[in-house]
Specification:
It contains 5 helices and 6 strands. Strands 1, 2, 3, 4, 5 and 6 form a 6-stranded parallel β-sheet that branches. Strand 4, helix 4 and strand 5 form a beta-alpha-beta unit. The longest helix is centred in the last third of the chain and has 25 residues. The two termini are about 10 Å apart. It binds flavin mononucleotide (FMN). The site of flavin mononucleotide has 20 residues, from helix 1 and strand 4.
Length: about 180
């Protein structure tokens, strides 16, 4: 199975989260995981993917313009139904606790539904998420005055999302064979 992680990031907080997600997904020996900053992300690769995970910093409660512009280039894939039934998941960082994490993740999920993707969140019975409560994907608050770009808890949450996506995608692709 092939999984593509696409992220936007200016200050590397979201980059660290994206890398943790890719790491978690790679724990599945059957997974080939690709990861790209949105500026390098190749839309032509999407057709060959079984799962796509995209994320960004929250900008005023919504998707960063860099990632949104990239998502808006996926119209021809929508027209051809190319992303239907691919697994999707999202992630986000913000500087403050109530700074729009959930709003941004909802906004990231919406185009996945329009594309006909099967969206995977992070349930409460995932140990890393039991207290975090990040159900819509991996959403992590990264205070700007912190010495670390991403906490160990945030990395664990990211790995958990990657793990879940590869598990669900593996089950789906096995069922289709
Ligand atoms: C234009 C812009 C708008 C932002 N809006 C918010 C916001 O509404 N709430 C918030 O908590 N952080 C906001 N931030 C901060 C970023 O979401 C936060 O620092 C994020 O972790 C940066 O990720 P990065 O280092 O991967 O770029 C904003 C940053 C920018 C540049």
């Amino acid at each position: 199975m092939k999984i593509y992680v696409v992220y936007d990031s200016e200050g590397e907080h979201t980059k660290y989260l994206a890398e943790a997600i890719a790491e978690g997904a790679s724990e599945n020996a059957d997974a080939e995981v690709l990861i790209d900053h949105v500026d390098q992300a190749d839309i032509r690769k999407l057709k060959d993917m079984d799962a796509i995970i995209w994320g960004c910093p929250g900008h005023f409660g919504t998707i960063s313009s860099g990632l949104k512009a990239w998502i808006d280039r996926l119209g021809y894939l929508w027209a051809e139904g190319e992303l239907i039934d691919k697994v999707g998941a999202v992630f986000c960082t913000t500087a403050t606790t109530h700074g729009g994490l959930e709003m941004t993740m909802h906004n990231l999920i919406t185009p996945m539904f329009h594309q006909g993707m099967i969206v995977v969140g992070l349930p409460g019975n995932v140990p890393e998420n039991a207290l975090y409560g990040s159900y819509y994907g991996a959403g992590v608050t990264c205070p700007v005055d912190s010495d670390v770009l991403m906490t160990e808890e945030g990395l664990q949450l990211g790995r958990a999302l990657g793990r879940r996506v590869s598990q669900v995608t593996g089950n789906l692709t096995a069922g289709r064979q």
